[in-house]
Amino acid sequence: ELNQLCDIIVEPLRDRVVTSLLQAALEGLLRVLLDGGASRIFSASDAKLLEEDLEILKEFFISGGDGLPRGVVENQVARVRLVVKLHGLETRELIEDLRTSSGKLGADNQTLLRILCHRADSEASQFVKKQYKIPKSSA
């Protein structure tokens, strides 16, 4: 589909359109990773699979040298790569960085909190509930 689209777009606009498609795909992935809803949870071991998925997406847009320049794609992928890397860290590391606001992990507090909210472990859940005074569920 992307090849057909590129065939009908005039050359000067091709990279801009394809870059916009890449940005949309990456924004969609970020929404899944950070805003996926209460039923979307991740464990640290999921980071390896997420990194593989990100690599496939990146290579799709580079398209063996026929697509976007590698540097352009790498720049676009950088923020998502950081979020995937954070998903692979231990919960205690994320909590410590959030508590101290050190930023040593390279993420803002909002991103760290969103990752902890979607973490599939009791330590993250307890921290978020206690730190942000979330009442126990009535269910």
What does this structure look like?
The protein is elongated. The chain has one domain (2-132). The model has no long low-confidence stretch (mean pLDDT 89). α2 packs parallel to α4, α3 (46-62) packs antiparallel against α4 (70-87) and α5 packs antiparallel against α6 (109-117). The protein is mainly alpha-helical. It has seven helices and no strands. InterPro entries: Munc13_dom-2, PATROL1_C, unc-13_homologue. Residues 1-98 form the MHD2 domain.
Write down the overall mean pLDDT.
89
Order of helices and strands: HHHHHHH
Strand content: under 5%
How many discrete structural domains? 1
Structural class designation: mainly alpha
What's the total helix number? 7
Shape: elongated
Pfam family, one: TPR_PATROL1
Protein name: MHD2 domain-containing protein
InterPro entries: Munc13_dom-2, PATROL1_C, unc-13_homologue
Domain MHD2: 1-98
Short synopsis of the structure:
InterPro entries: Munc13_dom-2, PATROL1_C, unc-13_homologue. It comes from Corchorus capsularis. This protein has helices at residues 2-8, 11-35, 46-62, 70-87, 91-100, 109-117, 122-131.
